[in-house]
From TrEMBL:
InterPro entries (alphabetical): NAD(P)-bd_dom_sf, ODC_Mu_crystall, ODC_N
Organism this protein belongs to: Giardia intestinalis
GO-annotated cellular components: cytoplasm
Gene3D superfamilies hit by this protein: NAD(P)-binding Rossmann-like Domain, ornithine cyclodeaminase, domain 1
Lineage of the organism: Eukaryota, Metamonada, Diplomonadida, Hexamitidae, Giardiinae
Family annotation (Pfam families): OCD_Mu_crystall
Region: Disordered, residue numbers: 189-212
Similarity-based family: Belongs to the ornithine cyclodeaminase/mu-crystallin family.
Low complexity: compositionally biased ranges: 201-212
UniProt protein name: Ornithine cyclodeaminase
Length: 226
């Protein structure tokens, strides 16, 4: 019997698989993993010269098997390409034939964001109304979308990032897409964060000492009264 292989693009993946479904599926996957219901070998990482790294992440439940291929290419931003391009290859468990290819950028957005949604569902206070997002790139958006899907009662988001452009962009997106009130939390330094010099390609700049210290200081800041 001839097999057919389906190819799902990024736009199609987002259309077919809303974040709410991703949160539910990720929660079920965490449960299956904790019960020994799936096999997830350590990922293999290859350093590709000076270009960056490429990682291979296989997994199987016995009924399904697949591998996610993820690359990290810092130079892609200048090319107008994703910094972390990716692809998921699904394999028919019974025949071993490749049954589908899924855009991995969409998968990374949905799966990584969904983990934050699962955490918020079980760990956030029942009456929580405000969420703090530290780092306003693509994964900041994914986490916020998933948290809102898991906890519809969230009404306001505070954004902390080194650049105002990133904070403004995610605030506009959150207001229009998720209907949230937004607060510009600045770079984090305004909350009295410890700083350390970090050398960039052109000149040194000051960055928060660590994400954990940033989170602790921001939670003590003026946005979260005791």
């Amino acid at each position: 019997m001839a097999s057919s292989m389906r190819i799902i693009s990024k736009d199609e993946a987002f259309r077919l698989y809303p974040m709410k479904d991703a949160v539910e599926a990720t929660e079920a996957a965490f449960v299956a993993y904790s019960r020994g219901g799936c096999e997830t070998p350590l990922r293999t990482c290859l350093q590709v010269g000076d270009h960056g790294s490429t990682l291979f992440m296989p997994a199987s439940t016995g009924e399904s098997v697949g591998v996610k291929i993820v690359s990290v290419r810092g130079g892609n931003r200048a090319r107008g390409l994703p910094t972390v391009p990716a692809l998921y290859c699904d394999v028919d468990a019974s025949t071993g034939a490749v049954s589908g290819l899924l855009d991995g950028v969409a998968l990374t957005y949905l799966r990584t964001g969904a983990a934050s949604g699962v955490a918020a569902k079980h760990l956030a206070r029942a009456n929580a109304k405000t969420v703090l997002i530290i780092g306003c790139g693509m994964q900041g958006r994914a986490a916020l979308e998933a948290i809102k899907a898991a906890r519809p009662g969230i009404e306001k988001a505070i954004f902390v990032d080194n650049t105002k452009e990133a904070r403004d962009a995610i605030a506009s997106w959150a207001s229009q897409r998720l209907g949230l009130a937004t607060v510009d939390g600045g770079s984090g330094f305004e909350a009295g964060l410890p700083q350390q010099p970090r050398q960039t390609s052109s000149s040194p700049r000051l960055l928060p000492a660590s994400p954990s210290s940033m989170a602790r200081q921001c939670l003590r800041g003026p946005w979260f009264p005791v």
